[in-house]
Design a protein that fits this description.
Layout lengths: L1 H34 L7 E3 L2 H9 L6 E3 L24 H6 L4 E5 L5 H9 L4 E4 L7 H12 L2 H23 L7 E7 L4 E2 L5 H8 L3 E2 L13 H7 L3 E4 L6 H11 L4 H4 L3 E3 L11 H11 L2
Length: 290
Amino acid sequence: MKRIANRRGYSIFAYHILSLLLSLVTCHLSLVTSIYAETPARIISLAPSMTEILFALGLEERIVAVTSFCDYPEEAKKKPKIGGMSNPSLEAVVSLKPDIVLMTTDGNPKEFEERLRSLRIKTYVFKQRRLSELPQGIREVGSVLGVKDKADLLANEIETTINKLKTQNSKLKTQKKKVLFIVWPEPLIVAGPGTAIDDAMNLLGYENIASKAKTTYPKYSIEEVIHQSPDVIFIGKGHVNMKEVSNSILKRIAKVPAVKNGAVFYVSDNLYRLGPRVIKGIEEMAECLK
């Protein structure tokens, strides 16, 4: 009899534990659902890449503020500013009463996210950093902001282009050319690993000579460039005339194949941000490398 009673007692205890766990899971799911249940009408973007995604999804009318770095498309410059990416004004954000604030792990401080959440301001963090992760990131943003169909369409277009380029690259039998992408000439800053630029080079079947650097945008020495001897050099768009500011460094590396053979290309900043424009950036790079 005692054994039967013990078993019954254990069963009742297990039942209550299971019920408690199910309740906790249900509450968690309800909380997540409630956070994004209503379509956000007032959006603040704390990153240029997020702003570009919002415009690409046709949500420009819902944007109430952006950062001082959000300069694309042209209409983004007309939006109210709440500071920079690393130092946005909490007071300005709160005063605008946003329904949601969009951030990224690539440039926005974690501490600011925590302060927003402590004030019960709905916050979404875009965690994707690689080219292959972009389509899924766009889909997630679309779901959160109530434009799932538009987001799916945009994500599918990007995936189709990426897969097309992968297929083309898989058919190439030529030896990989060594490439350097200069972000700024003096001091020399180049695109390293973990960037959309590095991903684009790999996708196109080329070797980024800075791919083994320890940071995403490392400082590089002239001696290292000469040692690595790139076949192609890209120089990205800057806030000044890049041809003028690059003259000095190109003279100093005049003997590397890229400079000797005239394989120095000035390109746009399409690959600087993980957003819809990266596809144009890849296609632009591919056109130069033909």
